[in-house]
Every structure is written in C-alpha cells, then in structure tokens.
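quick one: hexanoyl-coenzyme A bound model?
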Amino acid sequence: AEYETILVETRGRVGWITLNRPEALNALNTQVMREIVAAASAFDADTAIGAIVVTGSERAFAAGADIKEMESQTGLDMVMGDHFGGWADFAAVRTPVIAAVSGYALGGGCELAMMCDIILAADSAKFGQPEINLGVIPGMGGSQRLIRAVGYYKAAELILTGRMMDAAEAERAGLVSRVVPAAELLDEAGTVADTIASKSLPSLYAAKAALDAAMETPLAEGLRFERHVFASLFDTADQKEGMAAFREKRSPDFQNR
Ligand code: HXC
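yep, here:
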C-alpha cells in the first residue's frame, strides 16, 4: 500500500507505524486516520505479525485532530465524516498495539495513545485533552477512556481545564505503562514489542479480548468471559507446547495455533 502521512515498516514479527506529518505536529486529519486504520488492519490480518508499534516524532506523537480541517465543519459533517467509525476499527485491532509517545500527545493524539494497549512514554512526553480551549470536548474517546485510566477527578480536571501533564505526572496517574529516557524510547518499544510478538498469537488475542472486556463489562460478566476464553485456549497446540516446555525446562516453540 502507498501511504503519504505515515511510514510503515516490518521488523521481525513487529509492525511499525510512524506518523509523518511533521509540518502539522502529526495532527490527525481524515487521511491520517484512514492510513493508520489501513496499515493496522493489514498488520492485524497477517499472522507473521505479533505486535504493532505506533509512534510519532521526537517533538510530537500527535498534537490532536487537525483543527484546520475541522474548523469549518458542521455537526452533521462531523457525524457523516467517518471520523468515529475509522477510529473504532483501529481500537478493534486484535493484535497488541504499543504507543511509543515522545513530545505532544494532545487531544486526538492522547486519545490515539489510549486506543493502544501499552503506552510507553519518553520523559519528554506531554499529555492533555485541550479541546475545551477550542470550544469543544474530546471526540475520539477521551472523556471515556481517560476516566477509566486515571479516575474521575484527575480526568475531570484535565478535560475541564485543558492543561497538559508531563510524563512523570502521567505515570503517577496511571495513564502510561512506563516512562523511559527519550533517547531510549524506540529501542525500548522494540524490545517490548519483540517480547510480546514471541508469544502464541491465540493467547495474545485472548488476553487482549479479556482486557477489553474488563473495560466494558461488569465484573461478573467479565469473569465469565475470562473463564470461557481461558478454557478455550486448552484446545490450542500452543497451550500443550507451552506447558510441555515448562515441564521439560526449555523455551516453548509456539506455532500460533
Ligand atoms: C492542525 C496543528 C495542530 C492541530 C499543531 N498544528 N497542532 N495543525 N491541527 N491539532 C500545526 C500548527 O498550526 C503549526 O503549523 C505547526 O503545527 C507547529 O505548531 P506550533 O503551534 O507552531 O508549535 P508550538 O508553538 O511548539 O506549539 C505546539 C502545541 C500547539 C502546544 C502542540 O501546536 C497546539 O496547541 N496545538 C493544538 C493542540 C490541540 O488543541 N489539540 C486538540 C485538537 S482537537 P503552521 O503552518 O500554522 O505554522 C481534538 C479533538 C479530537 O483533538 C476529536 C476528533 C474527532
């Protein structure tokens, strides 16, 4: 596929998507959304890929949805503009996705990071939902996912004031998985992604589905879902291989089935 706003690369079993609109601090316009969704879906359909990394530049992961593209839109335009379905497709990717965030992750950029499963932050990262400064509110999940990540009071303060928080505050708040020195961000993301991609795909898909269920369901329903999916993995060859390898004190050789 030909992409204009992102760079796409495969390294081993890991698919890399790098946002590449430096002139707009990687602002997420409709084309960027379509390209990210297309690239992530293509990786997701490929069993040679076991993890996806989404990253931006040193200065910006993404400074939000493209304000210049949105400015003249009506409410109906926003509904009809396919913004929401596109991002839902990205969030529905089965393969684990790591956001490697350096610099600004604001508005839609913060929301894109929160659609990923792991958020690794450079110590230079800045997170925020500044939409209130523009007379609007988060529109790609910010008001819902941020609360689940950091709790009501932290999320409300960020969304109502529009202020940014640095990487250390984001880590304390539980928005990021881990903070690393900026110079090590991509290496560290690669290491985490390689580790994940070395596991059995059916168990990775199951783990992500169970994590997603935890975000969306009451506890009793989530526990039922977990038990069902846990049991189903005992019909995979990789469960037999993983447990035999433990017993035989060797590394497992997973076949992704
Ligand atoms: C369009 C953007 C942009 C954005 C930056 N740019 N953010 N263009 N949409 N979200 C452009 C600038 O216009 C400028 O281009 C260039 O990128 C560099 O940005 P500067 O502002 O000159 O850089 P700096 O002074 O370093 O400030 C960085 C910044 C600031 C603090 C990140 O750019 C900023 O506040 N950006 C907007 C952040 C924001 O409000 N995001 C939320 C968007 S709403 P030119 O050509 O003009 O020099 C949102 C809603 C999601 O995300 C829901 C959608 C469905």
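The CA atoms of residues 121 and 179 lie 5 Å apart.
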